[in-house]
């Protein structure tokens, strides 16, 4: 299937609990994999405005993630510190490795990248800098505090 990204709807919303949503302002995703009908992995075309970030710093227990920078310079923040990624550069985050990571646009220009991840069942996302855990369920992600108490929507 051929996909023209111009015809794919943009999503500016976040599924995080309310107190974290504003941190994703300036992030726009286009779910290219969903448009193609992919079932085993997802592909998003992501745009980050200056000052915005991809997600809270996180790592997955079961999902592999991969990013490919198309346009702009973005800062990868991980356990290794901050590193600049430029167009053509890539990074991968294997499932189960406790390397919290996020992309932050600290530049004055828009950043565009592809984000690819599998759709492994029973995934859990850990957020080392925040009181947050996300657990995959058939109905979507369930967010709890680290002590197991649910976040209210």
Task: Describe this protein's structure.
- The protein has helices spanning 18-21, 32-35, and strands at 27-31, 41-48, 59-60, 65-71, 74-78, 81-85, 90-93, 102-104, 111-118, 124-126, 133-137, 140-144.
- By secondary structure, the chain is mainly β.
- It has a single domain (9-122), classed as Jelly Rolls.
- The strands form three sheets. Strands 1-2-9-4-7 form a five-stranded antiparallel beta sheet. A four-stranded antiparallel beta sheet has the order 3-10-11-12, with no helix packed on it.
Q: Can you tag this structure with a few keywords?
A:
about 150 residues; mainly beta; Jelly Rolls; five-stranded antiparallel beta sheet; four-stranded antiparallel beta sheet; 12 strands; globular
The CATH superfamily turns out to be Jelly Rolls
Number of domains: 1
Uncertain parts? none
What shape does the CA trace take? globular
Present the secondary structure layout.
Elements: H1 18-21, E1 27-31, H2 32-35, E2 41-48, E3 59-60, E4 65-71, E5 74-78, E6 81-85, E7 90-93, E8 102-104, E9 111-118, E10 124-126, E11 133-137, E12 140-144
Antiparallel strand pairs: 1-2, 2-9, 3-10, 4-7, 4-9, 5-6, 5-8, 10-11, 11-12
Structure described in brief:
By secondary structure, the chain is mainly β.
